[in-house]
Amino acid sequence: MNPVSPSLTSRRPEQLVGLGFRCSLACLRTGDPAFARVACSRLTTALSLHEAPRALVLQFSAWALAIEASAERPIGILPIEAIGFCRDECLAVALVAACQHQACPALRACAFALMGTADLGRALAATETLAATLLEADALLGHDRIVEAPAAAAYGPKLH
What we know:
- By secondary structure, the chain is mostly helical.
- The protein is 66% helix and 0% strand.
- It contains 9 helices and no strands.
- The protein has helices at residues 6-9, 13-29, 33-49, 56-70, 87-100, 104-115, 121-136, 144-147, 149-155.
- The radius of gyration is 14 Å and the shape is globular.
């Protein structure tokens, strides 16, 4: 059995959101059922660690689908087992944080930077649903994740 990566064992909500985005987007893009099971299992384990409802798997999937379908540019993700997050994964975390903190200009800016389009309706609706469910599960992302979004958009640092 492989050891669990540090990003999976962290109880920080940012880790859950970043991993949820990565796993869900990876599942949407693969035609390999075995790979999809691995990604889903990793997300389910992270949800259990956070004592979050399993229904979040479906919300993460709906959110990732809304972003992928609305995006006018390729959305980048790291491999499932990677530690840390890439630029687009950081922007996805910032998007949820901005939604949870009702930071409207930042919310739209994060969404535009992530998807490269002004047609944000579907993605923002899915983000609102996910953000509300995360709040109900006591998974409030830090306000500092919104502030880090411009740096992620410009330079692509990893969020640990």
